[in-house]
Automatic annotation (TrEMBL):
Originating organism: Entomortierella chlamydospora
Biased composition (Basic and acidic residues): 168-193
Residue ranges of the TM segments: 27-46, 95-116
One GO cellular component term noted in the UniProt record for this chain: mitochondrion
Region (Disordered) residue spans: 156-193
Identification of the protein by name: Inorganic phosphate transporter Pho88
Length: 193
């Protein structure tokens, strides 16, 4: 709902701006690039804090396959530090891709209105991310912030759906997947012999 309010508010702002004026276009582009720099700076600060903390606690979780792939979930064993660095790196790649894509659209097709929205949403999302909550704002990695971090389902709040597994269900699912992987590994080794 907050994202929709931001989009609607930024549309009202752009309706009041003279988008044909070159100075206004330059200002909007400058604000957009500055906001993207803030997102990348936040990401770099988080990366430094992850590396400084050096949390080598073992983390086991199920890596869900892509929908309709027919694959079974795989057990991933890593450390909190490696997992956090991976999540942060994905956020950096996403931010860089968005920056390149929007600048391409702006210079190739003269798109200016989406730059206003994209000046606000990425900063908000970066500061509200689970890794930012843990590493920037010092919140404990418990409850909703417990690893592995699940992507927020925007429709869950609207439908009242609960897709959160209990800790016991999660551990049982991991054990089941480990047994399935072990069984598959044994059958592979028998085929090789």
């Amino acid at each position: 709902i907050m994202n929709m309010a931001i989009v609607m508010g930024s549309m009202q702002i752009t309706n009041r701006l003279d988008l044909e004026d070159a100075k206004t276009k330059q200002l909007i582009l400058g604000v957009y690039v500055a906001s993207q720099a803030v997102v990348l700076l936040v990401s770099l600060i988080i990366k430094r804090r992850i590396e400084a903390k050096k949390d080598t606690t073992v983390l086991k979780y199920l890596d869900q396959p892509k929908p309709l792939s027919g694959e079974q979930p795989k057990v991933v064993t890593t450390t909190n530090m490696a997992y956090d660095l991976e999540q942060n790196a994905q956020a950096q790649k996403q931010a860089l891709f968005g920056l390149v894509f929007m600048i391409f659209l702006h210079f190739q097709f003269g798109v200016i209105r989406p730059l206003v929205v994209q000046s606000i949403l990425p900063v908000k999302n970066a500061l509200q991310s689970k890794w930012a909550q843990v590493y920037l704002f010092g919140k404990p990695a418990e409850g909703e912030l417990k690893r592995p971090w699940k992507a927020d389902n925007p429709f869950a709040a609207l439908t009242g759906a609960q897709d959160q597994q209990t800790e016991a269900e999660e551990k049982a699912a991991i054990k089941k997947a480990e047994k399935a992987e072990a069984k598959a590994g044994k059958s592979e080794s028998k085929k090789d012999q």
